[in-house]
Amino acid sequence: MTATKFGTSPTEGSTTNETTRASRVLPFLEAYALVGLLILVIIFFSTWSRTSAAFPTLANLQIVLTGQSVLAIVALGVLIPLVCSEWDLSVGASTALSAVTAAKLLSNGMSPVLALALGSSVGIVVGVVNALLVTRLGTNAVITTLGTAALVAGVINQITNGATQVSNIPEFWTSFGAGKFFGIPNLFCVMIVLALATNYLLEHTPFGRRLFAIGSNRNAAHLVGIRLKWQISLAFILAGVLAGMAGILQIGNTAAADPRIGDSLMLQALAAAFLSAAAIKPGRYSVAGMLVALFLLAFINSGLTIAGAPPYVTQYVNGGALIIGVGLAVNLGRRRERS
Description:
With 339 residues, the protein is mainly α. The chain has helices at residues 10-47, 58-83, 91-107, 112-136, 141-160, 171-178, 186-204, 206-216, 218-223, 228-254, 261-275, 287-306, 311-338; strands at 180-181, 184-185. The chain is globular.
């Protein structure tokens, strides 16, 4: 038998080539599996007899894009601290507080622009409080932000007595929330701008690289001179900024401020943020992966709703997605560190 180059037999060379091809194909499949699943979900609900009449329509697409825009901004707020391995479980509550604060100020006759600005700034205040508690007192972020969320929920109930705020919502803001730019919902355009800005911040600036370094190995990040407390503080503050913006945009979207909106937003935002580590850049949290995961869940829920599925099915989907997302993020992250 004639030996191949470098003394490798034909069988060994064939095996090597197959291994090389597999090493190229498998990472691609892993990175874009959720994208493929998203496409399959859209095709399924577009052709299924129970949903084919309403699902693949421009009206339904606009509803999904508008409905998910505020949620995506909340998920961006969850994502930034997550990059440096910190959990902020108060983003949803901050969003609700910003919304009801702005609505309450509007109902008291305050200037619409000032009321919206003050409502948005509430999220920043919560972010600063979280940053101080976590970095200065050294408390666990999960427990701290969970406690903050509970305190914020108490403030919301005190302000609203559990009632949805609907008085004196300015028409210009609800018109903006319901409006479209060349057929694309305004809120979706705002979300895309914020997503691009967040992606640039995380992927193309020294701040973002420091956050990823902290999330990958905190001790190593400290040894190379990264100011851990300052970077983590900024992550929590930015989460608060995004929560505040989501709150006032929610008012424009629904022409009301629901004091209970925080809980529903938080679960879905967490699921999308964690699932981002399983898409586009496996083992690494990313804005692109978060958007893929978020709209995958959105289209599944939309299709199930059109099909007449009971509301608890959506809860199963979101809860299951969160569990799967956490599991994938942990395992893919470990594998990325080993490689």
